[in-house]
Amino acid sequence: MPRLFAFDVDGTLFNSQNRILDSTKEALQLLETQGHKIILASGRGPLSLEPVWEQLGRELPYIGFNGALVVDGSTVVFERTLPAAGAEQAVQLAREYGLGINAYEGRRWVIEEENPYSAEEGRLVNAQPELGDFGSLKKIHKLLMIGPAEAVRLYRDELRARSDQLNVALSLPNYCEVVNREVSKGRILQKVCGYFGVELEDTVAFGDGENDLELLATAGLAVAMGNGHRALLAEADYVTASNDEDGILQGVRWALNLAC
User: Fold this and answer.
1) Digitized pLDDT (tens) for each residue of the chain, 260 residues in all
2) Can you point out the beta strands (E) in the chain?
3) I want to staple 228 with a disulfide (CB 3.0 to 4.6 A). Which of 14, 116, 120, 208 is the partner?
C-alpha cells in the first residue's frame, strides 16, 4: 500500500553543509520507484523552499511555513495567516528582546531594518529579503525571530505565556518561528492526507527540530534524525543516523522493511 513520506528540510534532508547527500537522493528515488508519495514539511516558504527542488532533481509538494501554507504545483491546497493582533504582539516583543524580525507572505520576505541575523539567514537559504514596512504586507504567513539562543528561548517562553493566538516554536536554538495557533506541521499533515487520499496511519515523518514534534507525534511512523532535538528523539519510533551520516536512507529502509 502506498505511503506518504513527509520530510523536514533543514537538519533533515539537508546535511550540516546545507547540501543533499547522494544517499538521500537514492532514498527518494527508492520511494518513488515503489509508488510512495513524498511531501516536504518545512518552516521555509516558497522563496527558499522551491529552489531545493534543483538539488533534489524533482519538484515536490510541500507544507511550508510550519503548516501555514500547503502547495502542490500551482495549486494552493491550504493556507492560514497570522491574526493581526497576534502578529503585532509578536513583533513588539521581539523588538524588546532586540531580535532580528523577518515577516513572510507567500514568496515575499520582508525585514524593516538590516541586521546580521537576517543577512546570515539569506546566505543559508540563498535568498535575500526586501527592506520595507511590515504594514505593506496584506497578510503574514509566518514570523521568524533570530538572535542569541538564550534571548530567543526567553522570547519564546514569554510569547507563549502572553498569547493564545499563536503557535510559537524553535526550529533551531536561535530561531523562533511564529504562526497561527491553528496550524502546525502535524495538524496540516492530517489535511494533506485527505488531499492525497492516504490514511494517517500510512504516513511516515522525518524531522530533527522542536517544530517537528507535532509532525512526528501525528504521523503513523516517526523517524528522528540522530542530530535531532532531545524531545524529538524521545517521541520517535526510530532514531536514524544523523543528517551527515546517510540518516535519510537508513530511516527509509527501516520504514520500508516494516511495510513489507
Assistant:
1) 789 999 999 999 999 999 999 999 999 999 999 999 999 999 999 999 988 888 888 899 999 999 999 999 999 999 999 999 999 999 999 999 999 999 999 999 999 999 999 999 998 888 899 999 998 999 999 999 999 999 999 999 999 999 999 999 998 899 999 999 999 999 999 999 999 999 999 999 999 988 899 999 999 999 999 999 999 999 899 999 999 999 999 999 999 987 54
2) 4-7, 37-41, 62-64, 69-72, 75-79, 100-105, 108-111, 130-131, 142-146, 166-172, 175-180, 203-207, 221-224, 238-239
3) 208
